Amino acid sequence: MKHLSEEQLIDILMNEPRDAALDQHLAECPPCNERYRLIADGLSVAEAAEPIIPEMPRPMISHAAFRRRTWLKRAVVLPLAAMLVLSLLGFGFQSDQDGFSVQFSLLGTQTTAANHDARIADLEQRLLEAIELNTKLTQNQMDSRFEAVFQERDQNLREFSTALNAQIKGIELQNSENMVDLREEMLQEVRTAANQGR
Amino acid sequence: MEHLVDDIELVRRAQKGEGAAFDVLVKRYESKITGLVYRYVRDTDTALDLVQDIFFKIFRNLVNFKGESKFSSWIYRIAINDCIDHKRRLKVRKEQSLNQIQEYGYDVADERDEANIEDSHLAQLEQAWVRRAVADLPPNQQSIVVMKVYQDLTFDQISEILDEPVSTVKSRLYKALSNLGSVMRRKQVIEGGRT
């Protein structure tokens, strides 16, 4: 037996016009009945979740309000679009303490090309200056690094020579003591030999 | 007398720039659209903002309305699409803010647990889960639940609004209701396990 389709089950659930045989099938078919009970549960969840619409202020909607809104938008967007188009055509806009001014140079004319060349030359000059400055800074940094290394080396040498001198002095002192002891021993041996000879 | 004039006549007059005709159309559909939108978004401020946007879209696009469908269907379609867009934007924003929180090293899992605890408390008090279950439906399923179950529109009307065959609308409603039914079953199992 063919089971009920999703649409047929929805027709039964939502009480839509339908063939009576569908209800008959539903009553006799456990799988279809289980699917029906699932969507019936779903419907009860949806109904339980239906929000109660609170009192709301009336939104400010009218033809006049929307016309104002449209004009306001146009008042902002149109001048901006016009400025963009004009600037693409070669107009320049400037606002300073003297007020608002507009410059114009035709697109593709010699003037515009000359302006471009001048701007490129200016940018190249700035780039060269930046490279030079960077080189100087790098050189200064390297110099100060070397200076620090040399200072550290001198300090280490000083410490090393002081320590070496102290060690040499210690060895010399030890040698002197050893020489004194040796002399004493030799003198003792000489005295002993002299006594034996007598 | 304006209430006796049909939509098409009012639209024709509004298209010619007659502000009063547009205002009558607004008056005719304002509360229906507000109800539809509120049932979808469940927030007064958001609903009012969306209703403003929807009617502004209608105002701007009225000249393009050719009368191929009923004016009511056309207006509902704009409203439903706006609600669906709003829901999608909200979802994206939520995901972005979650990602941001994670980027800053905040423990989202802990926060979610806290939210779940709070929500479950709410659920016990107000049965918030049913609202959440409907709100969690995919936008195209939720819109059918709103239109059919809450607004009591016919399948033919919904079909015209969405520009989809009736069979698709019914099938989508079936999926929405079985999703909600499954949520209910899961909840029953969980509650059965607790007791």
TrEMBL record, chain A:
<keyword id="KW-0175">Coiled coil</keyword>
<keyword id="KW-0812">Transmembrane</keyword>
<protein>
    <recommendedName>
        <fullName>Zinc-finger domain-containing protein</fullName>
    </recommendedName>
</protein>
<keyword id="KW-0472">Membrane</keyword>
<feature type="coiled-coil region">
    <location>
        <begin position="113"/>
        <end position="140"/>
    </location>
</feature>
<keyword id="KW-1133">Transmembrane helix</keyword>
<feature type="transmembrane region" description="Helical">
    <location>
        <begin position="75"/>
        <end position="93"/>
    </location>
</feature>
UniProtKB/TrEMBL annotation, chain B:
<dbReference type="InterPro" id="IPR014284">
    <property type="entry name" value="RNA_pol_sigma-70_dom"/>
</dbReference>
<feature type="domain" description="RNA polymerase sigma-70 region 2">
    <location>
        <begin position="25"/>
        <end position="91"/>
    </location>
</feature>
<dbReference type="InterPro" id="IPR013249">
    <property type="entry name" value="RNA_pol_sigma70_r4_t2"/>
</dbReference>
<keyword id="KW-0731">Sigma factor</keyword>
<dbReference type="GO" id="GO:0016987">
    <property type="term" value="F:sigma factor activity"/>
</dbReference>
<dbReference type="Pfam" id="PF04542">
    <property type="entry name" value="Sigma70_r2"/>
</dbReference>
<dbReference type="Pfam" id="PF08281">
    <property type="entry name" value="Sigma70_r4_2"/>
</dbReference>
<protein>
    <submittedName>
        <fullName>Sigma-70 family RNA polymerase sigma factor</fullName>
    </submittedName>
</protein>
<keyword id="KW-0805">Transcription regulation</keyword>
<dbReference type="InterPro" id="IPR036388">
    <property type="entry name" value="WH-like_DNA-bd_sf"/>
</dbReference>
<dbReference type="GO" id="GO:0006352">
    <property type="term" value="P:DNA-templated transcription initiation"/>
</dbReference>
<feature type="domain" description="RNA polymerase sigma factor 70 region 4 type 2">
    <location>
        <begin position="129"/>
        <end position="179"/>
    </location>
</feature>
<dbReference type="InterPro" id="IPR013324">
    <property type="entry name" value="RNA_pol_sigma_r3/r4-like"/>
</dbReference>
<dbReference type="InterPro" id="IPR039425">
    <property type="entry name" value="RNA_pol_sigma-70-like"/>
</dbReference>
<dbReference type="InterPro" id="IPR013325">
    <property type="entry name" value="RNA_pol_sigma_r2"/>
</dbReference>
<keyword id="KW-0804">Transcription</keyword>
<comment type="similarity">
    <text>Belongs to the sigma-70 factor family. ECF subfamily.</text>
</comment>
<dbReference type="GO" id="GO:0003677">
    <property type="term" value="F:DNA binding"/>
</dbReference>
<dbReference type="InterPro" id="IPR007627">
    <property type="entry name" value="RNA_pol_sigma70_r2"/>
</dbReference>
